[in-house]
Specification:
heterodimer; A: mainly alpha; ABC transporter involved in vitamin B12 uptake, BtuC; about 75% helix; about 0% strand; globular; B: alpha/beta; Rossmann fold; 5-stranded parallel sheet; 16 strands
Chain lengths: ~300, ~400
C-alpha cells in the first residue's frame, strides 16, 4: 500500500463515515429524549434525497430552495409520524413503540414506492463533478459537502443543546423525563421536537448524500441500519459521540478493504469492521461498568 | 352410552365430510371452448431488483391487451395473473404455489432473478407445470434432464462474459481487475470471470468485492489503482455499477470500465451521468436497434416492441429486461395456440410444455430461439452486441 493509497482510503472512509454519522445523529436524538429507537430514521434520509431530486427535476425549483424545502418536508413528516403513530400509542411500552416505528417505516416506503416508482434517481451535484486532488488522493466536491455538512450539523446541534432553552429542555428530558416534568417541561412537546429535529437531520443527510450515492424508495432501511450502527458505537449518548462512531466505522471499513492481509480480500471488510466494533463495544462496556461501580 | 352414540355419529359425519372435500377437487377443471387461458407470472415488482421486474410486468400487461384486442388465442381470451415476489425466495415460492393451486394457471413465466428462479424449480417440477424463467443463470435449465418443465429466455452470464473477454483479447488487454457484488448475480459472474480469464490470455490482477448496500466503492477502486490492471470488469446491477463508474471518474483511474448486461437500461446512464461515457458492456440488440442492418432477422420485432412499449410507458423507458418477459410470454402463447379444445388443466399444462419444447426459430427480443429436448434456452449464438456508451447514448461496437 502506497502513501497515496493510504490517504485515499482515509478520504473515502471519512466520506462514508460522515454519511453513517449524519444518519446516526437522528437515532441518538430520538433515543435520548424518548428511549425509542426510531427505525424509520432511514426513511427520512430517503425522503430527503428523493424529494430533492423531484423538486429540482420535476418541479424545476432552483437547488438551494429545493434542498431547504426537502428538509422541511422531511421534518414535517417526522412530526406527523410522532403525532399520529407514536403519541396516540403513548401508553404502549417502549418496545411496542419501536415496533410502531418499523411499521411507520414500511408505510413511508410503500407510499414512496407507489408515488415515485422503483427507479433510482440522482439529483445534480451541488458544485460540479471535477474531483479535487489532495495529498495524492482525489476527493469529489460532493464528498466535501457531505463531510462539511456533518461537521456543521454536529456543531450547531451541540450549540443548540447547550445554549438554548429548548435545547436544554431536550437535554433535561434525556437525563430524567420525570424530573424534567416536575420543573415544568412538557415531555410530549419535547418528544415532538426530537422527532421533527431527527427527521430534519435525516433529510439533510439525504439531500447531501443523494447526488453521490443515488437513491431509490427502497434505500431507507439499509441507510438506517448504517446510521444505527454508528449511533450504537457512539453509545446513543451525544451527537459528538455518534459522529466519532460514524467516522470510526467508515475509516475502519475503508482500511479493511485496502490493507492486504494475505487471504483477507475486500470480501472480509465487513467482518473486519464488525470485529473492530465489537472490540470497541467490549472495551467501552467494561469501562462503563467500572464507572458505575465507582459511583 | 347415548353420549357415545352421539359422538360416533358426529365422528362419522366429520370423516365423511373430510373425505368428500378431495373428491370434489378431484373433478379436474376442464378448459372449454371460449374459456379464458390463464397464465401466471411472478416478478420482483418491489424490492432491490424491482427495476427489472416492473418493465417485465409492463410488457406482459401490454401484450395481454394486444392479444385480446386481436381476438385472443383461437377465441380464448388471455389473462396473465401477476404476483409480486418482493425479491424474496420464500415469497416467490408461495406465490408460485398459489398460481398453481388456487389460480389454476396453465403455465408460469418469471421469476425475475436467478436466485428466485432456482428456488422454485422443485415447486413447479413436482406440480407438473411449465415455467419460463426471465433470469440469467444457466443452472436454471441445466442439467436439462432434471429441468423437464423449465425453460428460460435471457442470455446467460457465460455468453456475456465470453463477449467481453473476446473483445478484451482483440483490444490486446492482458491484465484485468475484477470488482463484483456479493449477490447471487455477482458471485456467479465472478466465478465465471475467474475461471475463463486464462482462456483469453487474461490475468486477473485484483479481485475486489462490494455489498449491494455499499454507498462507495472508492476504497476497492483505490486498491485496483495500485495494480497494473489495464481494465476493470464490474459484475453487478445498474445502481451499483453506476457508483463504480462515478468513483472511477472521481479517482481519475484512466482505465476503461467493462460492465455486465445488468446495466442495459437508461437508469444506468441517468445515474452515472458523465461517468457513463466510455463504459462498455454486452447486451441484447434492443438497445442498438436503430443501427442494426435492415436484413437482421430481429430488426422488425425489436422496432415494434420499442415503439409499442414507449408509446405506453414513455420515451426512453424500454429495457432488455422487459424483453425477457416478452420472449417468455410469446413462447407460452405459441404453445397455447396449439391446444385442443375441452382438455383438462393438467393435459393443457403438459401440452404447453411440449409445445414450448417444439418451438423452432422464434424471433424474440433477446435472440432467436429453437428449443429442443436437450436445450431449454435454445438461443442462437450472436444474440449479444458489445455496446459503448458515447455521449449518453448506446453505440454499437461492431
Amino acid at each position: 500500500m502506497s502513501a497515496d493509497q493510504f490517504v485515499q482510503y482515509l478520504v473515502s472512509g471519512l466520506t462514508m463515515g460522515s454519511i453513517y454519522a449524519l444518519i446516526g445523529l437522528g437515532f441518538t436524538i430520538i433515543y435520548a429524549v424518548t428511549r425509542i429507537i426510531n427505525f424509520a430514521q432511514g426513511e427520512f434520509v430517503m425522503l430527503g434525497g428523493m424529494l430533492s431530486f423531484y423538486l429540482i427535476s420535476a418541479a424545476g425549483i432552483p437547488l438551494a430552495p429545493a434542498l431547504i424545502l426537502s428538509v422541511l418536508i422531511a421534518a414535517a413528516i417526522g412530526a406527523i409520524m410522532y403525532i399520529f403513530a407514536i403519541r396516540t400509542a403513548r401508553r404502549a411500552s417502549v418496545v411496542s413503540l419501536i415496533i410502531i416505528t418499523i411499521g411507520a417505516a414500511i408505510f413511508i416506503r410503500g407510499i414512496a414506492g407507489v408515488g415515485w416508482g422503483v427507479e433510482h434517481v440522482r439529483p445534480p451535484y451541488f458544485t460540479g463533478s471535477e474531483s479535487i486532488s489532495l495529498l495524492g488522493a482525489y476527493i469529489h466536491p460532493q464528498a466535501l459537502w457531505i463531510i462539511g455538512t456533518t461537521l456543521v450539523v454536529v456543531v450547531l446541534l451541540h450549540l443548540f443543546l447547550s445554549y438554548t432553552m429548548v435545547g436544554k429542555a431536550l437535554k433535561a428530558c434525556a437525563i430524567s423525563p420525570v424530573a424534567a416534568g416536575m420543573v415544568g417541561i412538557n415531555p410530549r412537546a419535547m418528544a415532538l421536537i426530537a422527532f421533527a429535529l431527527a427527521a430534519a437531520i435525516g433529510g439533510i443527510g439525504g439531500v447531501v448524500m443523494a447526488p453521490s450515492i443515488s437513491m431509490d424508495f427502497n434505500d431507507g432501511f439499509k441507510l438506517g441500519l448504517m446510521g444505527f450502527v454508528a449511533a450504537s458505537i457512539g453509545g446513543f449518548k451525544s451527537p459528538i459521540a455518534t459522529v466519532i462512531g460514524g467516522l470510526t466505522l467508515g475509516i475502519v471499513v475503508s482500511l479493511a478493504v485496502g490493507v492486504d492481509w494475505g487471504p483477507f480480500t475486500s470480501a472480509y471488510k465487513d467482518a473486519i469492521a464488525m470485529m473492530v466494533l465489537l472490540l470497541i463495544l467490549i472495551i467501552r462496556s467494561g469501562r462503563l461498568s467500572a464507572e458505575e461501580r465507582e459511583s | 352410552m347415548q353420549k357415545y352414540l352421539k359422538w360416533s355419529v358426529m365422528l362419522v359425519l366429520v370423516v365423511a365430510l373430510i373425505s368428500l372435500v378431495p373428491m370434489g377437487c378431484a373433478q379436474e377443471t376442464v378448459i372449454e371452448e371460449g374459456d379464458t387461458y390463464k397464465v401466471g407470472a411472478v416478478f420482483d415488482l418491489t424490492g432491490p431488483t424491482s427495476n427489472l421486474g416492473v418493465p417485465e410486468k409492463n410488457t406482459v400487461d401490454m401484450m395481454v391487451d394486444q392479444i385480446n384486442d386481436a381476438g385472443g388465442i383461437n377465441g380464448h381470451p388471455l389473462e396473465v395473473i401477476v404476483w409480486d415476489t418482493e425479491g424474496d425466495n420464500d415469497k416467490c415460492a408461495l406465490m408460485a404455489t398459489r398460481l398453481i393451486e388456487q389460480d389454476e394457471v396453465i403455465a408460469i413465466i418469471g421469476p425475475t432473478r436467478s436466485g428466485t428462479s432456482l428456488h422454485i424449480l422443485d415447486t413447479v417440477t413436482t406440480a407438473d407445470i411449465p415455467l419460463v424463467s426471465c433470469a440469467a443463470s444457466i443452472k436454471i435449465v441445466t442439467p436439462v434432464g432434471e429441468r423437464y418443465w423449465i425453460f428460460k429466455t435471457p442470455q446467460t452470464d457465460k455468453e456475456a462474459i465470453t463477449e467481453i473477454y473476446t473483445y478484451l483479447q482483440s483490444a490486446n488487454v492482458s491484465n484485468i481487475a475484477l470488482i463484483t457484488d456479493t449477490s447471487g448475480f455477482g458471485v456467479a459472474g465472478r466465478d465465471i470471470l475467474i475461471a475463463d480469464a486464462a482462456d483469453y490470455g487474461l490475468t486477473v490482477v485484483d479481485d475486489q468485492t462490494f455489498d449491494n448496500d455499499d454507498t462507495s466503492m472508492q476504497s476497492q477502486l483505490a486498491h485496483i489503482g495500485g495494480t497494473d490492471a489495464e481494465a476493470v470488469v464490474c459484475w453487478s446491477t445498474d445502481k451499483e455499477s453506476a457508483i463504480v463508474a462515478l468513483d472511477m471518474q472521481t479517482l481519475h483511474m484512466g482505465i476503461p470500465l467493462y460492465c455486465s448486461h445488468g446495466i442495459a437500461n437508461m437508469a444506468f446512464i441517468t445515474a452515472a451521468g458523465d461517468a457513463a461515457n466510455g463504459v462498455i458492456f454486452p447486451a441484447g440488440k434492443l438497445l442498438i436497434v436503430d443501427d442494426l442492418p435492415a436484413d437482421d432477422p430481429q430488426k422488425d420485432v425489436l422496432m415494434q416492441y420499442r415503439q409499442d412499449y414507449e408509446a405506453l410507458y414513455g420515451e426512453g423507458t424500454m429495457s432488455t429486461f422487459g424483453g425477457h418477459a416478452y420472449d417468455a410470454l410469446s413462447m407460452v402463447v405459441i404453445a397455447l395456440a396449439g391446444l385442443d379444445e375441452g382438455i383438462t388443466l393438467s393435459d393443457a399444462r403438459t401440452a404447453v410444455r411440449d409445445g414450448i419444447e417444439q418451438i423452432t426459430y422464434f424471433v424474440g427480443i433477446s435472440g432467436i430461439f429453437t428449443m429442443s429436448p436437450t436445450d431449454h434456452l435454445g438461443m442462437e449464438p450472436g444474440s449479444l452486441a458489445m455496446i459503448e456508451i458515447v455521449d449518453g447514448e448506446w453505440t454499437w461496437l461492431k
